[in-house]
Amino acid sequence: MSTAQPLLELRGVNKHFHGGGIFKQGRKVQAIKQVSLSLGARECLGLVGESGSGKSTLGRIILGIEKPESGEALFQGVNLYGKDKAAIRQVRRDLQVVFQDCFSSVNPRMTAGESITEPLKNYARLSYLDQLRTVGNLLELVGLRAEDACKYPHQFSGGQLQRVCIARAISLRPKLIVLDEAVSSLDILAQSQILELLSDLREELDMSYIFISHDIAAVVQLSDRLVVMSSGEIVERLDNMEEFNYLTHPVSLALLAAVLPAQPENRIASDHRVF
């Protein structure tokens, strides 16, 4: 049995928000309830749930941008909400994110090359020529052309711009990328292409992923393990993806039922085994 330290570990994480509306002023809503999980090197953990399940809030906690009230979020053994700011900054370069809306994730006034260069300027001391060379290599790595560095966001399709966002995320060769609904806004063909790209990059760059989505079909294509969330809690875990069709929790079954098989004759409402 391996005793290697997890790349990421959450221990009893809790998070509350204050409710809104005229009749809910001051009311606390528990968004995350006693969540514990871990992630190893070169592993993809799928995090699924319906809207409001808390999965994106958990993603922000993992990224170090949404402080929990209690519990710990450890990345490479460093508490992301601890007092050692130098250690936190050091590990932050190994933790990147790709969001759902690629168009709002970039500055419309910046070229693709300028967007990709941002993390390099923050963490890597490269000459101008080395920056240009690195950006060109990154664009080619994600299936675009080096010349695309001069284009602005409006000159790309959604799938192409998401590739630019992925290029930016991998620019520092991080150990973990949080994919927060990263393919949800794309058409089916673009989704398939991006998922294939992410799979190839994980193998080539030895990265890990937290893949957050409501689309359980997309998550299955990329993940090694699966966590299902509802009302801020983990309600089901799956460590063997070969047993995917044997999920039992009602939320898991609802997510499965939302996926239609390719062949209409196989769309039987009473059978959730669609893969």
Structure in words:
The structure is a single chain. With 275 residues, this protein is an alpha/beta fold. It has 2 domains: 1-94 and 176-185 and 207-275, 3-Layer(aba) Sandwich (Rossmann fold), CATH 3.40.50; 99-173, no CATH class. The chain is 32% helix and 23% strand. It has 8 helices and 10 strands. The chain has helices at residues 55-62, 85-92, 112-123, 128-141, 158-170, 188-205, 216-222, 250-257, and strands at 8-18, 28-39, 44-49, 70-75, 78-79, 95-98, 176-180, 208-213, 225-230, 233-238. It has a 6-stranded mixed β-sheet, with helices on both faces. Strands 2-1-4-5 form a 4-stranded antiparallel β-sheet. Strand 9 (225-230) and strand 10 (233-238) form a beta hairpin. The chain is globular and about 50 Å long. It starts with 7 loop residues before the first strand and ends in an 18-residue tail after the last helix. The model is unreliable at 262-275 (pLDDT under 50).
